[in-house]
Design brief:
- There is one protein chain.
- The chain has 160 residues and is mostly helical.
- Helix content is 96%, strand content 0%.
- The chain has two helices and no strands.
- The radius of gyration is 63 Å and the shape is rod-shaped.
């Protein structure tokens, strides 16, 4: 068996594989360990990035909810303000209409007073004209002079 060349080739092959395995296994294992460690670090980093992304997503969702709530509050405030302005405008309109109505009523009352005054003035003028006509028809010149003198004296007494 030791004389056969196949035995020596097989033995040399086993020794070669043993040396390669003994000397080459450590660098290969070290390379595999380094690669495994690098992959583990990348996975840890990816996990950290994922957690950060989830935190940021949660924060943005919270900010979005807050923004929606704030927008709803602004809309509600705008509705209340619009309602207040509408009520104020209605009150102002009613007050303006009341003032105009009062002014119109005052103008109507003034016109009635003016009309009554004009009617009275015309009635007085008509009465005076009728009285003057009656007096002129019934009073002669002598009686007219007496009445005129008497009226002048009365006016002089009343003025002093």
């Amino acid at each position: 068996m030791l004389g056969s060349e196949y035995t020596w080739i097989t033995l040399a092959l086993f020794i070669f594989f043993a040396l390669v395995f003994w000397k080459g296994l450590r660098p290969v294992l070290r390379s595999l360990d380094n690669r495994a460690e690098r992959i583990r670090k990348e996975l840890d980093e990816a996990q950290t990035l994922r957690e950060d992304a989830q935190k940021m997503l949660a924060e943005y969702k919270r900010k979005q909810r807050d923004a929606i709530k704030e927008a709803e509050a602004i809309v509600e405030h705008a509705k209340l303000e619009a309602e207040r302005l509408r009520e104020s405008a209605e009150a102002d309109l009613e007050a303006s209409l009341k003032r105009r109505e009062d002014l119109a009523l005052a103008k109507i009352e003034q016109a009635e007073q003016n009309a009554l005054s004009e009617v009275r003035d015309q009635a007085v003028d008509v009465a005076i004209a009728a009285a003057a006509k009656l007096i002129a028809e019934q009073v002669d010149d002598k009686k007219a002079e007496e009445l005129t003198s008497s009226a002048i004296r009365d006016v002089a007494q009343r003025l002093n």
